[in-house]
Give the backbone structure.
Amino acid sequence: MKNFKLIIALVTLTSIISCNDKRTPQLQYMPDMYVSIPYNPNGAEGLNGNPVNSEPVAGTIARGGHPAYDIADTNEGYELAKTSLTNPLEATEENLANGKAMYEIYCASCHGKKGDGNGVLSQREKFSGIPNYKDRDINAGSIYHVIMHGKNLMGSHASQITYAERWQIVQYVEVLRLDLAK
Ligand code: HEC
């Protein structure tokens, strides 16, 4: 009889526990493991329960938040890029400085620091036909297009540099070209 009462008590207790709303457990040992912390794609974190501002800061471009590049790698595509694309970034000192830094990493080995076509790889005759920027009829759109698709011996740099970095490099190449033409 004693055992029987114990069994009844246990069954009752078990059913009370299991009827609890699972989403609001009485005791949470480590709440993070039950309720996930929402991921904010913009990387900003809400502090002390303040709402997270998910709007990008004016004048900036969220990583990945830009339209896909769908201009074809053809002569027509080149001309289309040249006549239709404009740099979405403002010509600020910061953009230009980052453009210079990125240019010196990804482009100067062939094109030279000044853009005269005299980079290390050119000097060592690894690559021939690297132009002096001032000898090419190029603009922001065509430079962007060539970064995306490459041109003849020059390969695409699309996967190595972000959207904003490409346009920063474009700004810097235009500045180099103007300096070379002086
Ligand atoms: C491996 C060497 C190499 C690297 C690195 C390289 N280029 Fe080039 N680039 C070339 C060669 C070669 C050409 C000439 C292509 C042609 O017209 O046949 C060229 C041509 C160009 C042109 C002229 C294209 C036109 O429309 O006439 C631009 C602009 C240019 N490169 C920009 C860049 C930028 C910006 C980078 C860095 C993101 C870069 N290149 C990296 C080799 C390179």
User: Anything to note?
Assistant: The CA atoms of residues 98 and 163 lie 13 Å apart.
